[in-house]
Batch of 3 targets.
Target 1
Amino acid sequence: MAGVTYKTRQLRRRNIERSLATLAIAGALFWLLENFIKSPTQFTEVTFTGLSNGILYALIALGYTLVYGIIELINFAHGDLFMLGGLFSAHFITLWFGERHSSGKGWGVLLLALISVMIFCAVINITIERFAYRRLRRAPKLAPLITAVGMSFILQFVGLRWNGSGQKTWPSLLPAGNLVIFKVKLPYTTLISFAVTIPVLLALSYIVTRTKQGKAMRATAQDQDASRLMGINVNRTISFTFALGGALAGAAGLLFEQTRGLTSYNLGFQLGLIAFTAAVMGGIGNLQGAVLGAVIIGLIQGWNDGLPIGLGQQWSNTVVFSILILLMVFKPTGLLGKPTTEKV
């Protein structure tokens, strides 16, 4: 009898949760429809802006989820690595090569900067893993977590010495202006962000799902000891994962610096927190979930900040984190995450 009562309560709870979720989705769709009817052009422009921000967050969020997926570590230094990538890009393009305007030579320098900053951040991330995290893999989880926080402060100090305490503005090699389609203005910087980010995300997906090294990554994530018995070099596989995450952070740093035109030593904390939130929202450790969570957050921010009927930019983070809290209450594993059992 007690079992029947428990099942009844569980069923009732699920029905209530589904009803609340349906009401929330219906309310959000109604709000979006009202804004679209009020100003369809503005709605479309804001949506593209939100998608552009979302894919930038995705590049950073994937670094968090890659590392967590393979060694269950929340690498708090990852956002600051993104910050260093932006600083490296600004100095590489503007100071070292002296390019300040969009031109044929400038585009060549931009491509070279993209490759260089991805290598630069990948090397830093491998170095951090080798000397800070590797010896702590079997330590209590608090030890690597505190170490990651410490690495974050170290990278922030490097950024402070390199950039200074205030924001710096930099010229962009990306063309100014907009592409106008049916009165909808799409900035060229937004379109270029899509052109750079989407191939990078597709290349990452191919590496993880189709290559031998990607299979080794997935095997190591499931069981390191069994992977060693199967002949997989676990240390090299984990270093490769950190390299991938660092390369993505570098690409994100260059895109941010070129599209926003600024750098700041504490930028990694701000965007890193948003990207980490995206990874948690999608399901930490799930690559598709990280991208989905990042795009959702980008859209939420864009719609809230730019639509005629919205709370405004000052409430942007409040809206995002309120939605995250509600999601965690009803679905703790995230949108695409799966329940896992603790390894003993």
Target 2
Amino acid sequence: MTNVLIIGATGSVGQVTRNYFLQNSNDSLTLMARHTDRYAI
């Protein structure tokens, strides 16, 4: 398992990247964003 940091996790590219990792890996994600109320996991 790898630790992955996604900076800008609520932006358009960040959302696609986040969803990809959630659906296709068992990596540990750390999400970083200015607007944390936009997280929709």
Target 3
Amino acid sequence: MDIRPEFAVVYRHGEWVTVDPEEVDIGERILVKPGERVPLDGVIVKGASSLDTSGLTGESRPADVDEGDNVCSGSVNGSGVLEIKVTSLYQDSTVARVLDLVENQESRKANAEQFISKFSRYYTPIVVFSAIAVAIIVALFGPGLREGIERACTFLVISCPCALVISIPLSFFAGIGGLSSRGILVKGANLIETLAGIDQVVMDKTGTLTSGEFAVEEIIADADLKDKVLEDAAKAEMLSNHPVAAGIRRSYGKAVDNSNLHDASELPGRGMSVSDGDEVILAGNYKLMKEKNIVCSECSETGTLVYVARNGKYEGCLVLRDQLKEEAKPTVDQLHQIGKKCMIVSGDNKEITEMAGRSIGADAAFGECLPQDKVEKINELKKSGTTAFVGDGVNDAPVLVSADIGIAMGAMGSDAAIEAADVVIMDDKIEKIPLAIGSAKRILKVVNENIYGAIAIKVGMLILGAFGIANMWMAIFADTGVAMLCVLNSMRLLKISEKN
């Protein structure tokens, strides 16, 4: 709901008026000021800025836009005033489609019917009529009515389904409790079976596999100028709160000498400018270099590129990338070891997403996916097996609902993602995904032990009871004793260790 725009400022009858986004027609011009949310899809006809698209793509790096660029509703204008020509009605806009996906996908998820409900539907009448049959047969063809009634009562005590009725849900709840003690919250017993049967795990990139913090990985400049390029970039970005600026300052790793710095200014959609004494330092994108007539060639490296110039002379280019979490590759390796495929579906740049996929050994990587694209991709992947999706952002909510199992990061994840997910990892440690899958398999193993063990003992005792071999003490063991054994077996699931 946070990405839903509340108003649109549209140009009508010679003035700007505030209206509901649903009242704006295609072709009209809207005005978006810094800090406001873009209400409708359109094309920029005037202005330049940086847009925060994290609500749609999950990408923490703001996108620089200029005249002629397309913009999506739900983005937040960071700097600069934009005039946008509307290209789609509100009901067809990106933000409306995202909200519709969340609202309507939920109805497509069916709850698995519990085994005990099916079992009791047939079991109870069968054993009751069987006990009556035992009494009649023994009374007519055996020792007599008294013995027939005793055998029937013994038969009923043995057949009492306490072991199943108690131990099956207890196994699920104990397993869910054990997982919660490890910071893994499962929102229902009916999800355990699906979790255990996962064939492939699809992950979002930003915030899930990456830390959301940028760092300088390459400096494209003459060897003797590399340190100077990084220092000048840190000076230019000293007062900026842009994520890329913060990454440059962290990579510089020292306090910036600001004794001679003055006249710092942000150039919307371009970069930063600052005066260092009598010289001007520029740090920004390639458009900034062209506009200032600074001679340089455009770099082709994958990542966020920051060009640096001092006093009108090009110095070099910084290549920054969102940093992968240390546990990303080991987690993918563990998933491969237990026979699961692992893929990335991200709203980030295609080349960056594919590079991240290669770094962690993912089976496939798909970039530049908006929320509706992610849903389409997940629905396509579901045809080849049970699919889990792991995400943390507002933009991930529709696909978390659409996947067979949605797994959200609970510490840094958005409320929308946590609400939509089936499983929540409270400390954002993705290495707990293999632990959750392995533990779900263990839970089902214990459930099956209880089911087949209890049924086997009861069937054996029922046969003995029908022939008068089993007495009432044996019947009590087959009822209460087996129930207690199943309970004790279920309680093992309260302990979830790393090896699981």
